[in-house]
Amino acid sequence: MIRCVSLLSTRHPSLFCCHISDFASRMRLLNRLKEDDEACVSALQSGSIFLFHLLRPLVCPTEGGGLTPVRLSWTSLTSVLQRLSSDRSLLNESVLIGLSEQNQNQAQFCLDVGVLDPVAVEAECDGTFVDMRKAFFLLTGSAAPFVAKGQALLRWHQETKFCSSSGRPTQRNRAGSLRVCGSITYYPKMSPVVIVLVSDGKRCLLSRQMSFPPGLYSALAGFCDMGESLEESLRREVAEEVGLEVCRFSFSGSQHWPFPQSSFMIGCHAHVNPAHTELSVDWSELEDARWFSLEEIDHALQVQHPIRGEPQVMWFPPKHAIAHRLIREWVELQRAQSS
Ligand SMILES: NC(=O)C1=CN([C@@H]2O[C@H](COP(=O)(O)OP(=O)(O)OC[C@H]3O[C@@H](n4cnc5c(N)ncnc54)[C@H](OP(=O)(O)O)[C@@H]3O)[C@@H](O)[C@H]2O)C=CC1
Ligand SMILES: [Mg+2]
To answer: Where in the numbering of this chain does the Nudix hydrolase domain appear (predicted)?
Structure first.
């Protein structure tokens, strides 16, 4: 929907009224809140706040058996803090996550209440603090990436309290989108990871690491090295982990991934020459790597959850994960090619 938005900007005084979409106006407002501390304070007072305790999100169950994050208004959170005899200044630690598309661009913040007794907060707020690994896969709708982003920002603040150059404490802006020490500005960081589903035209290649739960197989993945392009990382990771040479690849999509910290997953499909598919697996990285037929992949896609005590049952990362999407795309392509 296009609507007329009045943009009063000191930076762009010529922009008084123009036609921009709701999305564009939301993005500009978000940017303004990052730059304007006063505007951000007032957005917090009318916004919603999501709580974490030592990086564990506060959630409550949904009717369908999933989880949803608990959101509090500024007023209700200040009264909770008062009842728990905590200083309201804790709210200064909150970090802007985004603006609600559904709720008239309401600002959304996250706050780690690690200094408070978690049980008391849970009782006050009707929720439970749960480990991110559990929460991420049970959060419904768009909540999983949203909560992951909040946790990633809070973690970054906790880890960037001091300047790595001077050793002095860093200062943050109100939104929490940066920290400074003198002339040095720190911005939140992500580690780029390439994740690639390799195919020989008929089969696809999946692997598992020692740390994976029993039966879980996924696409090959690896952190990009400093200075590498996406294609260089992809070719290197496939060569390192299974000894194959990629002849062509295509980009599929990307996602922020909260494990082990903040990864920026770049999902790709890659092809190898069907005449050169013999694997030379790096056993120090992988516990197993194998080629799978369409039939085997189709069967594993039906497995919703790992079955306890049946490690032989193969299953894939859940729908949230880009690995899942790559596998589904490969299946669709195989079906389209054979019909
Ligand atoms: N979203 C999804 O669908 C999926 C996501 N993933 C994610 O992809 C990520 C990367 O895959 P993985 O195979 O483990 O990566 P790699 O193949 O690159 O191997 C991991 C090792 O690389 C080293 N390393 C290099 N740079 C970094 C960095 N920036 N952060 C952490 N470790 C680094 C570490 O070695 P050392 O410890 O020796 O220093 C680490 O153990 C994983 O964290 C995993 O969570 C994986 C599969 C599916
Ligand atoms: Mg790897």
So the answer is: 188-315
The whole-model pTM stands at: 0.89
Angle of the 118-125 helix axis to the 74-83 helix axis, nearest 10: 130
The three-state secondary structure class of 129 is strand
In this prediction the ipTM stands at 0.93
Q: What gap in Å lies between CA 196 and CA 205, rounded to an integer?
A: 9
pLDDT, tens digit, 9 for 90 and up, residues 268-298: 999 999 999 999 999 999 999 999 999 999 9
Percent of the chain past pLDDT 90, that is, above it, reads 82
> CA-to-CA distance for 50 and 73, rounded, in angstroms?
9
Residue with tokens 């803090």: 81
- Whole-number Å distance between alpha carbons of 55 and 175: 18
Rounded to the nearest angstrom, the distance between the alpha carbon of 241 and the centre of ligand 2 is: 7
> Which of the two residues, 277 and 18, has the higher pLDDT score?
277
CB 84 within 8 A of CB 72: no
Specify the residue for token string 């982003």. 149
Residues 6+ apart with CB under 8 A from 32: 39
Whether omega before 69 lies within 30 degrees of 0, making that bond cis, reads: no
User: Which residue from 147, 160, 152 is spatially nearest to 49, judged by alpha carbons?
Assistant: 147
Determine the residue of 133, 190, 193, 240 to mutate for testing ligand 1's pocket, defined as the one with the most ligand atoms within 8 A of the Cβ atom.
193
Neighbours of ion ligand 2 (CB under 5 A): 221-222
User: Does residue 327's CB lie within 6 angstroms of at least one atom of ligand 1?
Assistant: no
Q: What are the pLDDT digits (tens) for 185-196?
A: 999 999 999 999
Amino acid letter for position 236: R
Whole-number Å distance between alpha carbons of 198 and 243: 12
Cβ neighbours of 99 (radius 10 Å): 19
Residues 6+ apart with CB under 8 A from 151: 52, 55, 57, 110, 132, 258
